[in-house]
Design a protein that fits this description.
It is built from 3 helices and 3 strands, in the order βββααα. The chain has about 110 residues and is α+β, with helices and mostly antiparallel strands.
Length: about 110
Amino acid sequence: MKKDIHPNYQPCTIDCACGNSIKSRSVMPRIQVDICSACHPFFTGKQKLMDTAGRIDRFKKKFQDKIVGAKKSTKAAPVSALRAKAADLKKANLQALRERVKSEGK
């Protein structure tokens, strides 16, 4: 191997937000993580809600106008009105088709 091209691989401490500390090896002396195997819901079987720096609130604030606008525009029209409109379109299409056949036949 070539000398002086490889990073300094040293013992490191991985610190979790829950207080758990894990010893490992890395090029960094200390690594900070938000979640580890001691507090992850997959390993503990408990659900833990993490809202780092109000991410949920920022998301809601950012998209609040779009959500409110979408709710207003997606109101379902009454079924009877839709059926009536569909029936009118069918009648108009049928009438146009009959006129076309008559004009081509003569």
